[in-house]
Structure formats: structure tokens, C-alpha cells
Amino acid sequence: MGKTNRRKSILEKLKTDGRVRVKELAEEFQVSEMTIRRDLEYLEDKNEILRTRGGAVSRSETPFPRKRIRNMDKKRQIADKARDFIASGQTLILDAGTTTLALAQNIKFSQELTVITNDLNIAGELFSFANITLYFAGGLIQTEVGSAIGPHAEKFFDEFYVDLAFIGTSSLTEDFDLTTPTPEKAALKRKMIDSADRSFLLADHTKYRKKSVHRVCHLSSLDYFICDDEKTELLEKRIADEAPEIELN
């Protein structure tokens, strides 16, 4: 495979996985690690990736259709757990994302709720249900994923104080920092967390030990971490050591 096609393949892997590692790429493409490092340097110079220690992360969002089909069984499992924290009459923030979309699908038939979201897909899922009072944040729409971001969306969330906020993340680093591809998304997630009496991270175990470009906050800034049942003993132990105030479900 020539370098042009190899670099295209690296970008495709980043769109799918969000992160690549030099050693794994060298083995897959049967080239030296130095060759892969040159590829990553070239792509970073083109402002398409951000190099990290031992690899690289994407600067762009994974398109919504790809996100939606990834780990859907785990997302539904997380949504089932999250639903148990919700009571009729409460006001919720649902952050943009496919796991929070699974939660929206889970709650739409049952309870009287007020839902505030910046996700067009969640709004489209809920707007026709009489038991849901729905607010949608304005702002710049990210066409890849269908979510509103930017200063207008941030100002919108300043107007609310809610019972529960359900937050997604692109990745959760080994040190338990939530990270995301854009500074606008990071700022908006912080607004959502600050607007809630209790806040929940919804993320499956595959997000752990990954890193994106912009830091949102440390996991300890939230109250709960709801994960799928495949969470590892290592993850449980490290949370107990590093963020003991977090309730892991």
C-alpha cells in the first residue's frame, strides 16, 4: 500500500475509533514505526489529527450514523440503569450523544418529564410526546452529529437549573478526565454539569483509557458514572482509588 492510501486508511480508523497507536498501525500496514510516525506528522501538519504519546487522536467528530450503531447493546444497558434514577415530574438535561439518545428512547413512553437538550436527534425523538415538555438549545449545528454548540447554546443553559444532567463523553482518560474533540463541546458540557443538582456520566467501558483533544473536567466533578456491565475490575478499583466520591453503576 502506498503512503497516500495508508494515510487515508489511518484517517478512516480515526473516524471509527477516535484514536490510533503507532505500534498497532505499523503491524497492520507492515511498515516501520518510523514510517507511521512520519505519516502522523504529515497528517498533523495538515491539521487533520493531533499526535499524542504513542499515537494520535482525531480532531473531528465521528459521524452520527457510525456512532449510533457502535456498541448499541451497551448503550441500551446504560440507558436502562440511568432510567432508574429518574422520577416523574423532574427536569433533565440530556447532552448530545448516542447513549443519551438511547436514554431518550427509554423514557419517552412513561413519565411526565421536562427535557432540555442540544441534540437534534433527541429532540426529534421526543417532540411529539405529550408527556415530555421539551426545550432545545439554539446555536451552531454540528452537521456531522446534529448537535448545537457555541456561545448561544452556552447562554441558553445559563437560564436553567435542573434535577439531573446526563452527560456523554468522547473519551475518558486513564486519569479520569472527560475529553472531547472541540473546545465548544467541552465548554457546553461544563455548563450542563453546573446547571444540575446531580450529574451523571453515561459511557461504556470502551471509552476508558482514550483521549481526545479538549478536556471537559475530571470525573470527580460529577456525581455518578453509569457504565455497561463489562466494566473491568481495574476500572472499578481505579475509580475507588482516584475518585471515591463517584458512585459507579
UniProtKB/TrEMBL annotation:
Cross-referenced SUPFAM superfamilies: NagB/RpiA/CoA transferase-like (SSF100950), Winged helix' DNA-binding domain (SSF46785)
The molecular function terms in GO held by this entry are:
DNA binding; DNA-binding transcription factor activity
Q: Which residues form a coiled coil?
A: none
Q: Which UniProt keywords apply?
A: DNA-binding, Transcription, Transcription regulation
Any idea where the HTH deoR-type domain is?
3-58
PROSITE patterns per the record? HTH_DEOR_1 (PS00894), HTH_DEOR_2 (PS51000)
| Name the record gives this protein | DNA-binding transcriptional regulator of sugar metabolism, DeoR/GlpR family
